[in-house]
Sequence to fold (475 residues):
Amino acid sequence: MRRPTRTIGLGLGRRAFLDLSIGAGIGGGLGLSLSGLLRARVAGAEVAVARPIRACILLFWYGGPSHLDTFDMKPSAPADIRGEFASISTAVPGVQICEHLPGLARVMDKIAIVRSMHHEANLHDSASIHALTGRPLEGPDRELFVPTRQFYPSHGSVVSALNPAPVGEVPFASLPHVFRNVHPVPCQGAGFLGAAHDPLLVDVDPVARTYPVDALLPRQGADAGRRAGRLGLLSALDAAAMAVPGANPFASFTDRACGLLESKAIRDALDVSKEPAAVREAYGFTADPLPAGEVNGGGGEMGVARQMRGQNLLVARRLVEAGVPFVNVYDYRQQGQNWDAHAKCASQHKHHLLPIADRSLAALITDLDERGLLESTLVVAMGEFGRTPKINSGAGRDHWPHCYSVLLAGGGIQGGAIHGQSDRIGAHPVADPVTPGDLAATIYWRFGIDPAREIHDPLGRPHRIATGSPVRAIF
Fold:
């Protein structure tokens, strides 16, 4: 009788593991990178995935980080492509990233990198729409030069619609503002799913360093007793209408609004002053007074605006703890320099962008892990595209949607995994290409939602929630 194959690591049989080790030139050693193990899935190995996630935090680096200066370094490329940064080793043997990302290097065993993201949208608005809904704009206006209404829903809105939260709870939140290029970019809400699935908008006051939400603040004089009286009157007036199903289309909105006003958990989640000083500092905060010139990110590296970039991720973690299933965090120029580095790309990344991004995202991953939330929370960090392989005459890099990198952590991710590969100059995928539709499918799949499921627009037309397929290999 044949002995059952013993499994090692990611569901690989012992024989497959040894064959792969020899083929990789490492003999019987254990130095095989996790990315190599994942590539062994071509032999038919399957990866067991944990139970569906409870939450997702999506960090959106608006403007487009340079993949060549962060997560897909090309040290052997010519100088005008590889740039001035060096690579450093990480917690995962064989995986290297930019020298200015030491925090993420330390937690790389909890992160997967997709190095083969790609699409065809060259401008910020159209690329952001594709990135945050999984759907490209189509037709003659697909680069979006004029204001338009959002059609396809964002990821959080789909999860809100298909995994509805109980009345009074928040299914989807976004912070710290609605981001805009020339106009507010139509990819941040529910689109045809309707306002019921729009996110709770959380603003930031960079001077007070607080997160006020107008929707949670009772109007002057409207104490609990007065609100109860008003609701009683509304209930009496609507009694007849409520007897007919569907006759009061605003009832659900009223219930949600009242639930939010009574939601102590959400109000507490937005009060970051309740966090220990050491935790806030880990995300990049200092309590020391700062000069007024630093309020908008104009001072040193730790200007107030950049500090609040880190605190945004702390708020996201607190919202997840309070039961919010989906949180979008927009890292945008209203809080200092954005990622659109057409000039002095290396300088902007080194001095303004990478230090707080590295510190705060590493802190979030560590914090979630220490609180036992990382396995049930998927963290996605991405821009709408990458930057051109060749450095331009202004020492910058321009828009490049044809290949870029996305980070994923938690949610059942196999830490240290590298999925996909770009060519020798980081211009195009040469292995395992991934689209925003595939990323959307991956997020829904990890929530336990079938990516092929259909939802209907107001005209009754069916739409698949995702056009791609889940990237299962990194789980």
In short: The chain has a mean pLDDT of 83. Residues 23 and 353 are 40 Å apart (CA to CA).
